[in-house]
Amino acid sequence: MNAEAIKIWLKKSKSNLTIALEVKKEPDILYEDLCFEAQQSAEKALKALLLFYGAKIEKTHSIEYLLKLIEQNGNITIPEYIKEAAILTDYAVTTRYPGDWEPVDEAEYLTAVKLAGDVYDWVSEIVGPVSG
Fold first, then answer.
1. Residue 67 domain-assigned (yes or no)
2. How far is CA 101 from CA 32, 38, 64, 88, in A?
3. Rounded distance, CA 35 to CA 92, Å?
4. Is 122 within the bounds of a domain?
């Protein structure tokens, strides 16, 4: 286990989550962009957990795939409320560019940041809090 690398991944995760929670002060900021930050937070927290279990970090944005890797490498049962975070994956790719999708509204945004916060908190409980 590389404690310093885990700390860095969790610190990045918390940074993304903080941005997702606090940036909607300008009307020009789109909810889908904040949801991208929420997805990044969950992804980085899960990658920290993979490191905690001694697994290799995969280059993927798929929350569902990362959760499967954690189950395999950590011999851990993932709570259902954490598995719900798999829906965040769409914000990593689909909504980042103009395309054929509906704009994200406030309710969807609030769900995304709640899920990301749940993932961050769950991982932090397992590996310990990040400070400094």
1. yes
2. 11, 18, 21, 15
3. 8
4. yes
